Amino acid sequence: MHVGLAGPIASADIARLLDPTAAPLPRGYPGAPLLATLIEELIARGHRVTAFTLSSDMPLVGDANIVAQGPHLAVHFVPMRPRAWPFNGHRVGRIVDLYAFERRGLERAMRAAAPDVMHAHWAYEFAWAALRSGIPHVVTCHDAPLVIARMSRGPRHAGYRWLRALMARHVLRRACRVTAVSPYMQAQIDSWCVVPVAVVPNPIDRRAFAIRHKRSPGRARICMVCNGWGERKNPEPALLAFDRLSRSHPGAELVICGRDFGPGERAEQWWRGQGLAGMVEFRGAVCHDDVLALMGECDVLLHPALEESFGVVVAEAMAVGLPIVAGAESGAVPWVVGPWGRLVDVRRPQAMAAALSEVLFATPASAEAVEAARTSILQRFSASAVAIAYEAQYASILAAARADASRLGANQPNHDDAGPEVPRCLRR
Hints:
With 428 residues, the protein is an alpha/beta fold.
């Protein structure tokens, strides 16, 4: 099958799948290494994949697309305006016209490549373009648009998120096949969809299962992966929790990766401004391989987010063998963790500090519990299990499109000037 896959894809995440002699590529759209995992698995299962993504370091002209090749893979890089609100040269900010320039570029690339099925990730510009392409489609929803909009602060950021929510509503009310990455996400978007929403979780990189965490006696190293300083990610209570822990256990260490958490960036400025105690290493944005390597060197994952549509970081840490301290009411997190983590009220620093102390110093997880957690993640979220579930979605939407085409063809009036009617599941 020729599968089209559209979504945020960074060049660094798929470099291993491309021709190593290719010219330097645009940087792509970072933030979703799980899509590279899915692409790799689909190729391994014998499919041909054409991927479509955006990149803000390309000339803003309609014919600026760049196509990279690899074995059984082509990747189309489409220009994206770098600024959301201000003008980009003579072009308005990308949110002002709801990503119209980007959507047109994606739609042209999709129609030119003509895959059998389009699989669009996130219910925004990628999915909208997939719907407009006229190709049988599957839309996978990775976040809860209304939840994110309600948690956004500041007029620009909140305005951006509310407009994105309008985009998602437009897409989901027209999509013919929709999946969500967790039961929590299914419940969040179900009322917006005119078709049943299936649950297909995110795939976990097989490299996470190859890393085996080894606890060093006396070490208390905590890892935290947090992209963005904001209410939803809930970093302030987490840092206050570590301050509390480090006062009773001075040898504890905290290593944080993610945007806004680098040296001198917003998180470190806040930490120093509060005069908090303890050894904290602010690593900032790093590649996915470095995140996995860090997990193998730490003793527990602290995940303070108030809401997660899935929680790939949590699942990866469990695959590595790390104990988890996370939110008891944080969206899909309890579903991912199951009975193998410490779930607490992450709004309360003292609750997180107490859970970290217990996991690190009082009752560490047994080898049997760690292995049970790893097995659970492998069975539910391995790349092969997820790819099999998506293959069923692709087959189903293709069968529906063929049935519609056959039905409409049989009912088509016999007039020379009557053009073919668009199948019901592809109408826009």
